[in-house]
Design brief:
By secondary structure, the chain is an alpha/beta fold. Helix content is about 25%, strand content about 25%. Belongs to the RecA family. RadA subfamily.
Length: about 450
């Protein structure tokens, strides 16, 4: 006799349970479990018919050596920073999922992309699931969008797929995937709806060669809401986040390029504007000649950037000195402070130490250790670093300076920004490295005297 299997799925993160739970043990969401449509197992599927496995024979096998090589055609989005994150542009037939908090600029960015693609001669289909067509027109007028974009309010997945098959647009934007419904799959926005809607639109994109962008809601933890399988179905997943006055677009998955790429934008009245030189933008307000300020060359994802590491030391009025760290790994900063006390005999016990990565970024990069060490030393002794010095390197417990990933790219980025003197680990071509924090301190202030 056939056996009916019932399961309950969290509509926030996709966690599966055999019974409904009040609180999801994975994402901690309350009352988020929905019953999935029961599936029937057993019967003929479990039987052992003649030949094959359960009466099923295998398909055709293809040797890897006989598979041809083909580069997927790409279409420029018209925004250089977005093309960088996507690995060169929009891929024909590729599906991109973009997430971000409400109001961060997802719809604004995609409307700008739609305008650029349409101006270049491509047909654009915009599925408006959350806004009226009049609202989109108002945003288009504000952004100066004049291209003739094809709009629809029909969010049924079958109808969207039919429109893609009929018109074969160069770009299809679905805002958002949580509003897409599939006939007979439960309540709109549910786990089954989002999962099956994503699968259907992905299949339509592959069949028609349409570059498709899906907008996804996010949970309170900042991850895309819905079943995790949705992120496995799509080809590319990117997130838009706010950092200070900037918007960062970061790729976390990319089947057609390198994941971890980072794009920097600034929100203005005319929309999201790409920041072509993030290093200059993040260092624009850096004070010169102030103790405790160090320019550090770091890598966020795959992108080298110059950031300012700041440190401040003051006498503590408390029995236990405070250690406040913003934007960096507090444990690594504690290690650097211990090295300074032990290896350089720098007295920090009666001082409150504040360390900040200016600009609002959070970068867990070991290559910032040396910059933190020099910033704290500079703040304690009250001596500023020379204005044309950039620093990077990992600090070990023995006080040694170790090499970091992407050292050459860090050095090149510093050189492009005009920082000619680099305090770096040994072994980097064209630069005399330092082997210890003590040696780095000596080199910096000998340079200052010169």
């Amino acid at each position: 006799m056939a056996r009916v299997t019932t399961k309950y799925v969290c509509n926030s993160c996709g966690y599966t349970s055999a019974k409904p739970l009040g609180r999801c043990p994975n994402c901690q969401a309350w009352n988020s479990f929905e019953e999935e449509v029961p599936t029937v197992t057993g019967g003929k599927a479990r039987g052992g018919g003649a030949g094959g496995y359960g009466g099923v024979t295998g398909g055709k096998l293809t040797a890897l050596s006989t598979v041809g090589r083909r580069e997927e055609p790409r279409t420029s989005s018209g925004i250089a920073e977005l093309d960088r994150v996507l690995g060169g542009g929009l891929v024909a037939g590729g599906v991109t999922l973009i997430g971000g908090e409400p109001g961060i600029g997802k719809s604004t960015l995609l409307l700008q992309v739609a305008d650029s693609v349409s101006r270049a001669g491509g047909t654009v289909l915009y599925v408006a699931g959350e806004e009226s067509l009049e609202q989109i027109r108002l945003r288009a007028d504000r952004l100066g969008v004049t291209a003739d974009i094809q709009l629809t309010r029909d969010t049924r997945a079958e109808h969207i797929a039919a429109l893609m098959n009929e018109h074969k647009p160069a770009l299809c934007i679905v805002d958002s995937i949580q509003t897409v419904t599939v006939e007979g799959e439960g309540a709109p926005g549910g786990v089954a709806q989002v999962r099956d809607g994503t699968s259907m639109l992905t299949r339509a994109a592959k069949e028609t060669g349409t570059a498709t962008v899906l907008v996804g809601h996010v949970t309170k933890d900042g991850t895309v809401a819905g079943p995790k399988v949705m992120e496995h179905i799509v080809d590319t997943t990117v997130f838009l986040e706010t950092v200070g006055a900037f918007r960062l677009l970061r790729s976390v998955k990319n089947r057609f390029g390198q994941a971890g790429e980072l794009g920097v934008f600034e929100m203005r009245g005319e929309g999201l504007i790409a920041v072509e030189n993030p290093s200059a933008a993040f260092l624009a307000e850096r004070p010169v000649g102030v103790p405790g300020s160090v320019v550090a060359a770091t890598v966020d994802g795959q992108r080298p950037m110059l950031l300012e590491v700041q440190a401040l030391a003051s006498k503590t009025p408390y029995p236990n000195a405070r250690r406040v760290v913003v934007g960096l790994d507090p444990r690594r900063v504690d290690v650097v402070l211990a090295v300074l006390e032990r290896r350089l005999d720098l007295t920090l016990g009666g001082l409150d130490i504040y360390v900040n990565l200016a600009g609002g970024l959070k970068v867990p990069d070991p290559g910032l250790d040396l910059a933190v060490a020099l910033a704290v030393y500079s703040a304690v002794v009250g001596r500023a670093l020379p204005p044309n010095v950039a620093v990077f390197g990992e600090v070990g417990l023995a006080g040694e300076v170790r090499s970091t990933v992407a050292s050459q790219r860090r050095a090149e980025e510093a050189g492009r920004a005009g920082y000619k003197r680099l305090i770096v680990p040994p072994g980097l071509d064209g630069h005399a490295g330092v082997r210890s924090v003590e040696e780095a301190v000596g080199v910096v202030w000998q340079t200052a005297k010169a």
